[in-house]
Amino acid sequence: MDFQLSDEEQLFQKSVHEILQAKLAPVSRQIDEKHEIPRSVLEEMANVGLLGVTIPDKYGGAGGNITMAALGAMEVGAADPSMATAVYYLLVTGWSHLTAKLGKEELKSSLLPKVASNKAFLGIATTEPGGGSDLVAMATNARKQGNKLILNGEKSYISGVTEAKKLGGGHLTLMKTDRELKHKGLTFAYVPINAKGIGTTVLHNMGRMGISTGILQYTDVEVPEENIIGDYNRGFFHAMLGFNYARTLVAAACVGATQWALDVGSEFIKKRTAFGSPLAKYEGISFEYADLAVQLEMTKNMVLKAASLLDAFDQGKSVPMKELNMAVAASKLTAPQLALDAVKKVMIWHGALSYTNETMLEMAMRGILSYVVGAEGALNIMRLILVREMLGPEYLPYR
Ligand SMILES: Cc1cc2nc3c(=O)[nH]c(=O)nc-3n(C[C@H](O)[C@H](O)[C@H](O)COP(=O)(O)OP(=O)(O)OC[C@H]3O[C@@H](n4cnc5c(N)ncnc54)[C@H](O)[C@@H]3O)c2cc1C
């Protein structure tokens, strides 16, 4: 067992760190206030190969693996703790990785080079107004007509609606294609946002303001069959694989945000004095710092384990799926809660100052909460995956 990153991975992380600290960190507050990630920052991220980090070279990407994508997510989460850029990055990275793996050649060659060069946004649309966790209950449906699918329904809380409309691109969309077959009757396909028959509404979020969230309404939208990811009626399984990539990257971004919070916190408690000593001398504070730092190290190791198992899976190696699913679910369960806990404790160390926007802690808290309440899968769904893998599927409540 090797707990060291390879030379290539260390070099990648160092160069990404330097670039993002120089270009992204200084505009983090601006992103939150102006509700937009500057195009120049996204272009810089594309130029250094970050937006196409896992896209194969032949489609204009950097040809890296999920471990490299996770290292990138840690750096993005640390440079923009509003989490807006992390969401943008992990959506395009995670879902283009699945597209590269399971998409048809026509789709890959037309879409992926645009995603890698930030000429198209790529996201995911599974959640509906009626619920997000219970995918089988979805109402959005598609029927076959010649070599097309005709899509009707509605998706909600979808990230990147405005970004895709402005830049081009769209969402990998889960649709019911056979009502009788439950989870074996869902299909996953790329639906460009500017396709005829799509209406959009933007929702007003409380955090991660630099990326939009909205509703997509589909009325007889024609989806060409070459846009289907993987196989017809196998969409549930393909989406679950994609969620394993995306959830690992969410967890990695939260590891980055936790590191950021601890850096801000340690700097503050060493400087701020009360009753004649720096706060760091008081065990009530320094022990909290020590506990958080240990939890961060453990969570980071779990996330890197999930990423490394996904890389082995991608390479066709024999991977115990139970271990892989558990590592991903444990990462997505733990990392957002740790990030929230760290930000909350660091706020309390700051006293009243933290309740103003003089620090970026309140902004980080609003952004991280999106991953605690649901984005890329609710925490209880991670617990259900762990129960399924550890106790057995017969102990799931809906069996
Ligand atoms: C900022 C933001 C951005 C998002 N972006 C996207 C996106 O781009 N694409 C997309 O498809 N979705 C997106 N989502 C939606 C997200 O994936 C869903 O919030 C998530 O899947 C949960 O679905 P839900 O919100 O409908 O909650 P529900 O599924 O209605 O669940 C509500 C609560 O009940 C709990 N719960 C549900 N079932 C069980 C059970 N069996 N046992 C115990 N507890 C249970 C859940 O943990 C949750 O706390 C986004 C969400 C947010 C907040």
What can you see in these coordinates?
The protein has helices at residues 7-23, 28-34, 39-47, 66-79, 84-102, 105-116, 161-167, 235-271, 283-314, 321-350, 361-373, 379-390, and strands spanning 121-125, 141-145, 148-159, 169-176, 186-192, 198-203, 213-224, 273-274, 277-278. It starts with 6 loop residues before the first helix and ends in a 9-residue tail after the last helix. Helix 5 (84-102) packs antiparallel against helix 6 (105-116), helix 8 (235-271) runs antiparallel to helix 9 (283-314) and helix 8 runs antiparallel to helix 11 (361-373). 48% of the residues are buried. It has 399 residues and is an alpha+beta fold. Strand 2 and strand 3 (148-159) form a beta hairpin. The strands form 3 sheets. It has a 4-stranded antiparallel beta sheet with strand order 2-3-7-6, with no helix packed on it.
Q: Note the gap between the termini.
A: 38 Å
Spatial order of strands in the largest sheet: 2-3-7-6
Instruction: Give the overall silhouette.
Output: globular
CATH H-level homologous superfamily name of the largest domain: Butyryl-CoA Dehydrogenase, subunit A, domain 3
CATH architectural grouping of the largest domain: Up-down Bundle
Number of strands: 9
Number of DSSP helices? 12
Helical proportion, percent range: 40-55%
Percent strand equals 5-15%
As for the number of domains, it is 3
Low-confidence runs of at least 5 consecutive residues: none
Order of helices and strands: HHHHHHEEEHEEEEHEEHHHH
Given helix and strand content, the structural type is alpha+beta
CATH top level label of the largest domain: Mainly Alpha
Bound molecules: flavin-adenine dinucleotide
CATH topology of the largest domain: Butyryl-CoA Dehydrogenase, subunit A, domain 3
Overall pLDDT: 97
Largest sheet, in brief, is: 4 strands, antiparallel
Cα Rg:
21 Å
